[in-house]
Structures are given as structure tokens and as C-alpha cells.
## 1
Amino acid sequence: MNYTVMIPAAGSGKRMGAGYNKLFLKLGAQPIFIHTLKVFEDDPACEGIILAVKQEERPEIEAILTRFGISKVRAIVEGGTERQYSVAACIRAHTEAGIVLVHDAARPFIRRAVIAELVSQANIHGAAIAGVKAKDTMKLAPNGLVEKTIDREQLWIVQTPQAFQYDVLKKAAEEAEKDHFLGTDEAMLVERMGLPVRMVEGTYENVKMTTQEDLVFGEILLSRVQEEEKE
Ligand code: CTP
Ligand code: MG
């Protein structure tokens, strides 16, 4: 089943501490965001990419897209001061019914099998998001005092992609805007409307390149992916 992907890339990467948008940092020979876009470029089920960027970075990003042969970008929109606003700009640039994915440009290690499962589950349930089970024991400790241990089986660490029927995402985003509600992911906007969101088991390698340590891990993951591609 086909889908369109919306990719927010308009952040500033403060926690990475590079002094500029971390997405331009290289993993192997390519900028982080190119690795992410390549996954969708190469997925036959992906019909188009909508990218949110900072206005001042647009020329450089366009040049890099051309240099690395990314051809599926259908629109480049101006991002906002918050991630949610950048995604909202992508949503406004899209009109077609069908399944849309939202995926962080900073997560280059997403697997096509997970994408396919998300698309299929969103088609059934309206919304489906990728996540992994917590590996460590999880405790609830308000103000640093342990109140209880939480059943790990029920806890998910949430990632992107998050997949939606387009009308569900659009309505959720409009309602959030109307209420001045700022969520930390798109699923939250759907949850607050009382609509179902299905969890899909993703992979631990789908880390967001956030701090310097993530780049070390990223280089290792990249060599593994490249080995697989040779096989
Ligand atoms: N993003 C965006 N618009 C924003 C903020 C973030 O499009 N106003 C994008 C980032 O470019 C990234 C994704 O959302 O691809 C996830 O955000 P995050 O990892 O937090 O990136 P930054 O916000 O750039 O990093 P930091 O929070 O450390 O400044
Ligand atoms: Mg951020």
C-alpha cells in the first residue's frame, strides 16, 4: 500500500552542539538527512516526500538533494519554531486522501518492513506508531521518590515513523492548533481526540541522532546496513 511521507528537518540541533543544524553532519559520506530520505526514495510504496526546512537553509538543502539524486521530494515547506509547527506546514501542503507518515529527518535507520507494517495498521485503525519495549526496569518516581514499578510489558518507547489516515492527522492537527495545544509527537494530537493509535514494534536501531554519542552508534549502524546491502 502506498503512502506519502512528511519529514520535519527544520530544527537547529542544539543538543548535538555542532553550532549548526545537525542534519548536515555526515554519517559515512552523506549528511544524516540524506540517509533518511534515501530510505523513502528507494521504497517503491513511497509516492512522495514533503520536507519542512528553515527558510535560510533551503538553498543548501536543495543543492544537496540534487547532488545525492533525491527525486521524490514533492514540496519543500517552511518549518516553524516548534517541531509540531513544521509538521503542520507539511500537512497544509498535502491534500490527497490516503496514508501519510511523519518521520524525523534525524532518524536515518528506519527499516522498510516497519514502514510497511505502520502503513497497513494505520489503514485499519486510523493511526499507528513505531516504538520499542523498554529494556530496563521502569519506575514511577515523582520528585525522586519511588512510588511503584511499572509493568514493562505495557510500556513503549515511542519513535517515528507515525502513520495516519490523512483526514485523521489533518483533523487532529487543526484541533491542536485551535486549542493552542503543543504535543511532543503527532499521536498525542490524535489521542486527545479520543481516537485509537496502534503500537507497531519497531527496532532499537531506529535511534534519533540527538547528541554526540548517537553519532558513534550511527557510524556503527551504518557500516552494518552497508554490509547488508552488499549481501
Ligand atoms: N524539527 C523541525 N522543526 C523544529 C524542530 C525540530 O522540523 N522547529 C525536526 C528536526 O529537524 C528533526 C526532528 O524534528 O529532524 C526531531 O527533532 P529533534 O531531534 O529534537 O531535532 P532538533 O530540534 O533540531 O534538535 P534539538 O532539540 O537538540 O535542538
Ligand atoms: Mg528538538
## 2
Amino acid sequence: MAKSALSFVCQTCGAAYNRWQGKCDACGEWNTLAEEDLTGATTMPVSIRSKRKGRLFTLETLAGKTQDAPRLSSGMTELDRVTGGGFVRGSVLLVGGDPGIGKSTLLTQATSLLARAGHRAVYISGEEAVAQVRLRAERLGLADAPVQLAAETSVEDIVATLSEGAVPRLVVIDSIQTMWTDTVESAPGTVTQVRASAQALIRFAKKSGAALILVGHVTKDGQIAGPRVVEHMVDAVLSFEGEGSQQFRILRAVKNRFGPTDEIGVFEMTGLGLREVSNPSELFLSARDLGSPGTAVFAGLEGTRPVLVELQALVAPTALGTPRRAVVGWDSNRLSMVLAVLEAHCGVKLSGHDVYFNVAGGLRISEPAADLAAAAALVSSLTHAQLPTDAVYFGEISLSGAVRPVAQTSARLKEAAKLGFGRAVLPESARGDIGGDAGLTLDTVAGLTTLVADIAARGQGHPAKATDPEKNATPPGFRRQNG
Ligand code: TYD
Ligand code: MG
């Protein structure tokens, strides 16, 4: 007896069940199962299966000839940085991002630049009509670029058209959720359709050597909708992020088989499309609020590039039983850890205060090196002590309250000096890493206590360096420690 086709598919992870259930056992998500017709996708009559004999193919050696440069530069430095030096032939890239963030704009610009450089670049829009895409190109001043454009959604038609003539160097599919293939019967946008369409397009890319970019939509909780399954099939996943209200856009590699995943590309959305920002520090520090307590400049590192960014903290007495902790752009567990260390080792009492923490410019920081700058901003806000405006901070805080060294000290110092900062507050143990003259005054701290005492002293109008918190009067919010 033939096995019945499984027909309830989880729209998050793609697991299939033969009856409906509230929770997906595979990924643990609730309410994600939807009915799909899988006949043809998974089942094939036994008679056909057994009759089909496997086709023989030639096995190749590793030392083969590659006709063209394996990487194709997009003409946009920031995009190349994230992909790891350009589009790899036959590779497939998934670009995810919120609606309206600028995915179509970015890819229109990339295809136009390639087309202008004489390559065959194809842009297939499944969402917008040809006229709409043209309108955007006109606005971007790229209407003259010889991009091959179409508004199509049938994967079979697309593959057939692309197989004609010269192999395209770049194909953009905007978006994968709008594509459908005849081989499965589910509606467009369902996991089965998205997976089958992506498979057919990826097969074309691998066979022909064209670089393929798939645009993917993102759900409310930041996942690329439906095609989680697609993430596993592609060579690289890039995520395009930004705050709706701000003009900065950050392109980040989430996965990359051919390059690093810690590089970011920074863009600015202007009236004339996306402008590349080659020095992001200047952008993130451009609207700095000089002279108010609660802000500290962090000398961070994004991939190989040092990036200076302002961290902002607001510490205010709470009216609630459980104080609020709100974080944007940083890990909230990391904030809790820094607060706990401040409380346990430095006598900074924060359990009666709400804490709001923000990374300026919409950047998201994942480096532990931000601990010291975050602690400085928090203590500065609590004590109303303004930090020196020409100082940068970096260093990891350990649970014991010690300040640990971080990687690439000299690169961070060099960037700070370049941007006109005069001093750096950094771990004591980092001194060994600094070769020669750093170009700025170095304030090394061995423990968090030293930093807290320093800032507290500033708040009381004693700019002199204080090393022993016991000798100072207790500022507001501080509790004296015994012993
Ligand atoms: P779009 O690329 O269509 O976003 P996505 O494809 O990710 O949905 O970008 C749409 C937004 O970008 C829209 O709000 C208008 C804005 N925009 C500009 O500000 N300047 C421009 O030159 C263009 C083309 C778009
Ligand atoms: Mg779009």
C-alpha cells in the first residue's frame, strides 16, 4: 500500500506531518503548520522510480581549469567587503531584510554597475512591474545601464530564458517568495514552493556558473520568512538592517561559505539611492551629544575594520517593584552582567534604578570589548558625571571585576587618533600590545573599581584622579562596601 503523502508543513522549519498539530515537534514553534499538497514533491510512483536508470556523469579532478576570474567585483566596495571580495561564480546569495529597507535599491545599483562594466546582468522582479523598476532606476540615475529586466514569477520560464545566449554573470531574483514552479502544487510563498523554486534556480546557477542573488523577506521576529530552509541551501546569507527612522543601513553576513562573517558594509539611504560610507565612525559619531552625562565612545571592531560608536545609558530611579532594563543594539544578558559586576564589586547600587541602554546610529554590537565603555556610560549617567569628550573606551569585564585585554588594541587606538580623540581608557594588560607611540594618552585600568572611582570623582567636581573609592564621599546611588 502506498504511504499517504504528508501534508502539514511547518512554515518555519519545513518539517512535514500527516496530521495537524499546534506545535511543531522539530523546531518548537507554535501555530506554524499549514496544509500543503506534497504530491509530486516527495512521492513518485514506485513503477517510475524503479524504471529510471541513473545517468552516468564524469567525475572531475580538483585541479581543473576555471575560465574566468572566480570573483566578480560588484563595483560597490561596501558590498564586496561583506561578500568577501565580490560575487563568486556559480554561488548563491540570499539577501534578507525588512520591507522598505532598501534591498531592491541595493541590488538595482549592483546590477546596473555590473551591466555598465560590460557584464550580462539580469534583474527579475516578482513583486514590481517593469515600469516601477524603471522608475526606481531613473531616480537612481541608472536608467541608461544595460540591465536585462523582466517581471516574471515562473521559475521554469526564468531558467529557460536565462539559458539562452551568453551565461549571465549576475542574476537577481526579487523575491524568492513570489516565485513558483510547476513541479509542486502548493501556493506561491509556501515553504514547499519556496524550497522547490530555490532548488531549481540554485541548480541553474551551479550548472551555468552565473552568480545568483535571491531576495528574501523577513518576518516580524527577524527571521527570513518561510525559507529558513533556503538558508541551508545557499552559499551566503546577508542581512540588510537599519532603523526605519534613520538613514544608515548595515549589510551583515550571517553565513558565508566564501568569506568572513564578521564584516559589515555601511550605507546611507539618500534621495539618490544608497551611498557607500567608507568611514562609518564619522557617521556614527556625527550627531554626538557632547557634554551630557551617560555617553561614552566605544572603540570597536567590525570584522577587520575599527568602528567608533557612541554608547548611551540612562539610569533613573524606578517607580516599579522590578526595575526596567531596556537595551537597543547590545546583548541584554551582557548588560545584566555588567550591572551585576558594578553592584557586587564596585558598590554601585542599581537595583532601584531603571536602566535604558542604546547604541547610537542603529549599529548592533556583539563584542565583549564594549563592556568597559558600557560600564563608563552607566556610571556616568548614575552620577551625572560627564565623561571626557575626547576619550574612547574598550575592554572586557570579567565577573571578578577585572578588566581583560581585547584583540587589535593598536587598530582601535589608531582609528581613535585618526578621528581626533586624545585619550583612551583601556585594560592595564593591553600595554604590551601597543607598539611605539599610540598617538594618544593612555589611561589603563586594571579593575572596574578604578574606573568607577575615577568617574565618581569627576561627578563631584574633583577632576583629580582618585584611586581609592573609600576616600571619597559616597555619591548618590552608591553604597559603601564593608571591609
Ligand atoms: P526598496 O529598495 O524598495 O526596499 P525593499 O526592496 O527592501 O522593500 O526601498 C524602499 C525605500 O527606500 C522607500 O521607503 C524609499 C526609499 N528610497 C530612498 O529613500 N531613496 C531612493 O533613491 C530610493 C530608490 C528609495
Ligand atoms: Mg523590494
